[in-house]
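My current task is to audit a protein record that another person submitted. My question to you is simply how this chain folds and whether the tokens agree. This is what I was given:
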Amino acid sequence: MGFFDYFRRRQPIRDSRALADFIDRNAAFLIQKAIYEYSRARAGHYSKVLFKEPSFHKAVEQSRWRAFPLGLAMVAEAAEGILRTHSGGDARREFDALVEIVLSVFDRYPVPEALSKEDWQALRADLERRLRFINLHPVKRALDIPEPYATLYFDLMPIHEKLRGRDFETTHNYLKVTLCNIHDELTKRLDVPALRAQPEFGALAVT
């Protein structure tokens, strides 16, 4: 990305591919940023040395890939809430289409070297299970979406639990603030009528 790309207006999200790319990029950012920054903060002056250690690198890789499905679920719930608040479509079909989009993002990635095939398959199954629960409750504020994921995410940090201190609330707040920002961007960029006109959404704007 060039310097002037930062000043260009981001394009509206009008189709499934664009929505999948948005979910992919923002789920990865949501998850990875805190893992790296938290690890550096806890390591302090030794962070450069620590990040060069093969064993720690493996631990980071395990953490970010195990946490990635949690990021996908959180960003997917933000997207689902936006779609649900714009009434006028076939809610069931929209939801099923969104679930398939999110699972297709997961399937973009081969089994990570840090995980076994069985672990990766289990993470996918768990992601699908979480996605299926999203529309069983009223739409949440973006601020509240991380609540059931925060402890799971914090427990995946590649720092021994005895060295984590009282950092859970800081991590939880990071998830809340970042997801609010992601929700705001998606609200501005998501072209709901255009998305609903896509075949996988059933061309729902047509009666």
Remarks:
- Confidence is low (pLDDT under 50) at residues 3-7, 203-207.
- The chain has one domain: 12-201.
- The longest helix spans residues 54-85.
- The two ends are 42 Å apart (CA to CA).
